Amino acid sequence: MILKTDRGQDLTGRPKTWRDRPPLPPAFHLEPGDERQARGDVLLLLAWGNVALHGAALVLTWFGLRPGSALVSLSDRMGYLAGRPSAWTWGWLLWMLCTLLLVAFMAVLRQALPARSAMAQLALVLTAAGMAIDLLCDVIQIQVLPLLAAGGGMRATSFLAFERLAFTGGATAANGLYTAGVLLMTVRLRGRMGAPATLTGAATTVAGAGMALAGLLTSAELLAVFTGPTIGFYSLWTVLVARDLGRRAHPARP
């Protein structure tokens, strides 16, 4: 027998019914500081992922994409692509993964900011728009150009038309949007990151503008000059930004 009080509780103080019991505490809850630290860790992981993936893409570009690019004669690159070399396909697939990782980094970076920012949101939107264009151009590189190259000289005109579309679309439209996104995010983060990150963001913008210009001029040689610096500065920028924001989230870290 359990004795009841006049308030509907037993002598142990427990509520009369289960509906009156206080809710159980959540099994896992992140405090605001913990959430910032978690985002900082994810941001650093994505930054190093950008470094590794973009570095691998540059290596595969030299060995797998260069023989099918406008750096060689039309007959040589059509002959190379006619056989659908696996290095060509895997090279562009790797660049597609780089694009996805770039947008993921920018998305987490926007969330890592302490307050909503129209500039950071615009940077993410521009980057996502660049991704859409870039993925389409990469599909043309993988599927359309080898198909046209297999047709031989009769399809040379169509090959050149689609090659130029993919070249300018990727180098100017997509990369131009990426460059604008990095510039806006660098300006937005000014004061929250150190001078090296700011300078690296500016260098990424300058080199990226060179890539965009190469796409407008359809100059494979100029694109080759600016691609390495753009990727290098961008990769370094991601690491420096993640490091600086991580120090704010983890004040005890060196």
Features of this protein?
single chain; 254 residues; mainly alpha; 7 helices; disordered N terminus
* Fraction in helix: over 70%
Q: Structural class of the helix and strand makeup?
A: mainly alpha
Order of helices and strands: HHHHHHH
Question: Shape from CA axes?
Answer: elongated
What portion of the residues fall into strands of 2 or more residues?
A: under 5%
Contiguous helical run count: 7
**Radius of gyration, CA atoms, in whole angstroms:** 26 Å
The N- to C-terminal Cα distance equals 63 Å
Topology:
Layout (H helix, E strand, L loop, with lengths): L31 H34 L8 H9 L3 H27 L5 H33 L5 H33 L6 H23 L2 H30 L5
Descriptive report:
The protein has 254 residues and is mostly helical. Helices cover 74% and strands 0% of the residues. The chain has helices at residues 32-65, 74-82, 86-112, 118-150, 156-188, 195-217, 220-249. Helix 1 packs antiparallel against helix 7.
Give a nutshell description of this structure:
Helix content is 74%, strand content 0%. The protein has 254 residues and is mainly alpha-helical. The longest helix is centred in the N-terminal third of the chain and has 34 residues.
